[in-house]
Each structure stands twice: as C-alpha cells, then as structure tokens.
Amino acid sequence: MNKTWLSVVIAALFEVGWVIGLKHASGLLEWGATVIAIGVSFSLMIAASRTLDVGTVYAVFVGLGTAGTVLAEILLFGAAFQAGKMILIGVLLLGVIGLKMVSKQKTKEAHHS
C-alpha cells in the first residue's frame, strides 16, 4: 500500500471517530476531539484526491468508514450483531478492495496539465 492509499485508510479511521463523536459526544473535550477528527479526516481525503480519482477516494473513504463505524458500534457500544448486516459490510469491503485494485494513481505530469 502506498502513502496515498494509506492516507485514505487513516482518513477513514478518523471518520469512524467523528461519526461516533457526533452520536456519543456529551462534553466539550469530546466535541473538540470530534471536530479535530473531522478536520484530519477531510484533509487526508482531499490530499489523496490530488493523486487518485476523487470518486474512488470518496467511495473507499465512505466504505471503510461505514464498515468501521458498524464494527465500533458493536464492539464499543453494545449494538446488536446482525449476521445479514455483517455479510453486506463484507460485500461493501470487497467493492472497496476492488476499487483500489482497478484504480490508477495520476502521474505528476497529468496532474499539472
């Protein structure tokens, strides 16, 4: 995995944090962390879209963020485990992996023209 794709994965991890923060934050510190997570998440996603197709970056970002949020809700907050939901999350992740595999990174020459 190259640096650009790693930034998309890290952006998605921060997305999980801010989505959970939007639901569960109750104090100033938690809301502050949520706002910081939003900033980091979107900054990394925007930076990645400079060298990867923006549609692919966004799809991978949202797909990983969705899967991570569902898993975090189950593991950290006691949400009900639903086999059907987990199968669909697996299908979503297969799509994310497929998008990464067929995506080409823009060259610097193509980016500047």
Strand content: under 5%
Helicity level, as a percent range? over 70%
Largest sheet: none
Number of strands: 0
Number of helices: 5
| Molecular shape | flat
Descriptive notes:
This protein is mainly α. The protein is 81% helix and 0% strand. The protein contains 5 helices and no strands. It has helices at 3-24, 28-48, 54-77, 83-102, 108-112. Helix 1 (3-24) packs across helix 3 (54-77) and helix 3 (54-77) packs antiparallel against helix 4. Mean pLDDT is 89; it is low at 109-113.
Please describe the structure with a list of short key phrases separated by commas or semicolons.
single chain, 113 residues, mainly alpha, 5 helices
Task: Briefly characterize the structure.
The chain has five helices and no strands.
How are the elements arranged and paired?
Elements: H1 3-24, H2 28-48, H3 54-77, H4 83-102, H5 108-112
